[in-house]
Amino acid sequence: MHQIIACDFMTVVSIRFKIHYVFVVIELGTRKIVHYNVTQNPNPQWAIQQFRETIHPDNEYKYLIHDNDSIFSKAVDRSVENMNVKVVKTAIHAPKMNAFCERVIGTIRRECLDHMIPLSEKYLHTILKRWIKHYNEGRPHMSLGPGIPNVSPDNIVPLSEYRHKIPEGYQVVKEAILGGLHHEYFLKKAT
Fold first, then answer.
1. What is the pTM of this model?
2. d(C-alpha 106, C-alpha 117), whole Å
3. Domains held by the chain: number
4. Are 95 and 69 within 8 A, CB to CB?
5. What is the pLDDT of residues 139-184, one digit of tens each?
6. Residue 90 and residue 163 in one domain
7. What whole-number distance in Å separates Cα of residue 133 and Cα of residue 131?
8. DSSP 21
9. Percentages helix, strand, coil for the chain, rounded to the nearest 5?
């Protein structure tokens, strides 16, 4: 699963009724969003550039799942296959074949964009940058046991004698995300 990435687009309407396309790439093994970007005019050349930014030579990705959107042209598929990644297209009208990516797009909508109206493309990019950081580093994922896709060494909880007791010398700290839309809780050494 760590060698498979999936991608898809979603549309977001700004306060001025402009349509923005959000491109999302997720790694299936860790459920980590590895790349995203926003544009008003997606085209195959833009998509190729997004894959260049996502698939680095040191990555171990072997498969890319995407749907039959016209943006994913034969030129895009050839470009991805030149990066030593096999393209797997989903069947037409079969969103369950790309279920992980469809699920993360639904999560982005429910937990973020349903509560905020972007003013512009730049503002939408700022909102997504902060929310995706929260998604990758602070939000528990039940499919991971529950776990967090990208745990930093600073957020590893020290072992305690009792499961529901805060370890000595630590305190619970709360951080507001997107103006209080979400909150992250973690342990920090008491000062």
1. 0.81
2. 16
3. 2
4. no
5. 766 665 556 666 655 556 666 666 677 777 888 888 888 888 888 7
6. no
7. 5
8. E
9. 30, 25, 40
Please provide the size of the chain in residues: 191
In this structure, the answer to whether residues 102 and 169 fall within a common structural domain is no
Which residues, listed in sequence order, are joined to residue 25 by a DSSP beta bridge? Answer: 7, 35
On whether the CB atoms of residues 3 and 22 are closer than 8 A, the answer is no
Q: How far apart are CA 95 and CA 97, in angstroms?
A: 5
Long-range contact set of residues 148-154: C-beta below 8 Å, sequence gap at least 24? 149/30, 149/31, 149/32, 150/30, 150/32
Cβ atoms 68, 45 nearer than 8 A: no
Q: Which domain holds residue 168?
A: 153-189
Three-state SS string over 53-100 comes to HHCCCCCCCCEEEECCCCCCCHHHHHHHHCCCCEEEECCCCCHHHHHH
Q: Could you tell me if 132 and 160 lie in one domain? A: no
Cα gap 183→24, rounded to integer Å: 23
Q: By the 8 A CB rule, do 54 and 82 touch? A: no
- Please tell me what DSSP assigns to residue 160: -
Rounded Cα–Cα distance for residues 125 and 21 (Å) = 11
Q: pLDDT tens digits, residue range 32-43? A: 999 999 999 999
